[in-house]
Amino acid sequence: SSTMSLSEAEVQSARGAWEKIYVDAEDNGTAVLVRMFTEHPDTKSYFTHFKGMDSAEEMKQSDQVRGHGKKVFSAINDMVQHLGNSEAFLGIVTPLGKKHATQLKIDPKNFRIICDIILQLMEEKFGGDSKASFEKVTNEICTHLNNIYKEEGW
User: Fold this and answer.
1) Which end of the chain is more exposed for a tag (fewer CB within 10 A), N or C?
2) How many whole angstroms separate alpha carbon 154 and alpha carbon 90?
3) Does residue 1 belong to any structural domain of this protein?
4) What is the CATH number of the domain that holds 25?
């Protein structure tokens, strides 16, 4: 049985699309964050080390940005691997959501921003089909994260 609202075929094509971008997890994760920080500068305020960085070049070279980009991609990769198992999927999403809501106090709209940038990057690199097949996954992730935030009183 597949997770939530995704059919088995949708899970497979989403995994195929994700694998292409995950091959270069650090570079692509970094590209996503750099684009987020550049297009939505307010998101930098959550990251004390990145605050002073203004140029995209500087961000790209930063070990902290690269490290966090890789971390974001690894977390999504874990979710993608467990799309067929709701319990395992929620076992990854729930603690992540709780940490961002309670300890880090990150505005949940930032998850949607990151997901949209990942979809843009997929489309640029691999075309509209890749983006379309991964869109449902990002919707699942954001929906579950938003639910966790609601439970935490946001």
Assistant:
1) N
2) 19
3) no
4) 1.10.490.10
